[in-house]
Design a protein that fits this description.
The chain is an alpha/beta fold and about 325 residues long. It is about 55% helix and about 10% strand. Strands 3-2-4-1-5-6-7 form a seven-stranded parallel beta sheet, sandwiched between helices. It binds guanosine-5'-triphosphate and magnesium ion.
């Protein structure tokens, strides 16, 4: 990309959508030259962003996250808000192609002048995608969007990163019986500020039963904050039923945590954690480059058991440090 970063920053701050899109493409790029420009761009917009409300919407694939965001987003736009939607899709990291890519279109919301919908970057490391998403969030705030909704698939590590960048985590669940509380769902519940059982239109009894199961599971989890504990709501993202009630809770949380200073504290912590994410990302990247000649071989020897992990780590580390 050939870019005049200063002009780009001013255009983003002026709310120009095409420039915003180009700026996000720049922060998503992995090319070293682009990374330098992206860092410059981020410096220019820092401290000049709007004070947006940041909400993460996570849940297993197919639970209705995009549908929920479209319904909610259109409603918020009609109330005069400017809504930006960003997506983190861990499958895009592994496969090179994005699962969300096609389905995240949210056509009606994308066409709304009050909204900006950006699908997930389609390549990069998970850390890199999370970094790009966080920077994209700051960019949409610089462009004046006052609500940012971040969609993530609640598998793998992505939800850990999303709770590190938002004020509120909404977990969407689909109704269903049996082993509902195993594995990823448990992990998700621990991050939730609110759990919404979606698709109630498919069967109210089933949804009610699922909601009760999650409510009792939530009782076993110690709330992260004294001023807020997660509760369970039901909705139909498709019909819109229950969606305004859920948003009212997000608002209530926002009012409480702004008033008692918790939101500010959380954002301070998040900034420091992000500094470390960036440091780790850069270190690992330069480490991999630094030991690239031997990395495959050593890794295979560890897999085969002919070299111990300790010996291998020592070898790679001294190779890396000796080269500097
Ligand atoms: N009946 C019913 N179907 C719904 C509801 N919400 C979403 N769906 C459907 O469920 C399917 C998945 O919805 P999405 O909104 O794409 O779900 P998602 O969680 O974003 O999916 P991924 O991005 O692939 O993880 C679509 O066919 C939706 O139409 C709902 O409230 N009721
Ligand atoms: Mg989706």
């Amino acid at each position: 990309l050939s870019v005049d970063v200063t002009a780009l920053a001013e255009a983003v701050l002026g709310g120009d959508r095409a420039s915003l899109a180009r700026a996000i493409t720049l922060v998503e790029s992995g090319l070293p030259g682009d990374r330098v420009k992206a860092r410059e761009l981020m410096k220019l917009v820092t401290g000049r962003t709007s004070d947006a409300q940041r909400v993460g919407i996570t849940g297993a694939p197919g639970t209705g996250k995009s549908t929920f965001i479209e319904t909610l987003g259109l409603d918020l736009v009609s109330q005069g808000h400017r809504v930006a939607v960003l997506a983190i899709d861990p499958s895009s990291v592994r496969g090179g192609g994005s699962i969300l890519g096609d389905k995240t279109r949210m056509e009606r919301l994308s066409n709304s002048p009050g909204a900006f919908v950006r699908p997930s970057p389609s390549a990069g490391t998970l850390g890199g995608v999370a970094r790009a998403t966080r920077e994209a969030m700051l960019l949409v705030e610089a462009a004046g969007f006052d609500i940012v909704l971040v969609e993530t698939v609640g598998v793998g590590q992505s939800e850990v990163h999303v709770s590190d960048m938002v004020d509120f985590v909404l977990v969407l669940m689909a109704p269903g019986g049996g082993d509902e509380l195993q594995g990823i769902k448990r992990g998700l519940l621990e991050l939730a500020d609110l759990v919404a059982v979606n698709k109630t239109d498919l069967g109210p009894e089933q949804a009610e039963k699922t909601a009760q199961d999650f409510a009792s599971a939530l009782h076993m989890i110690r709330p992260a904050s004294a001023s807020w504990s997660a509760s369970v709501y039901q909705c139909s993202a498709l019909s819109g039923a229950g969606v305004p009630e859920i948003w009212a809770q997000v608002q209530r949380h926002s009012e409480i945590t702004i008033a008692n200073g918790e939101r500010d504290l959380k954002r301070r912590d998040q900034r420091v954690r992000w500094m470390w994410v960036l440091v780790e990302d850069r270190l690992i990247e330069s480490f991999r480059l630094g030991v690239a000649d031997r990395l495959m071989e050593v890794q295979q020897a560890v897999q085969a058991g002919t070299t111990s992990p300790t010996t291998a780590a020592e070898e790679l580390l001294s190779m890396f440090f000796d080269e500097r």
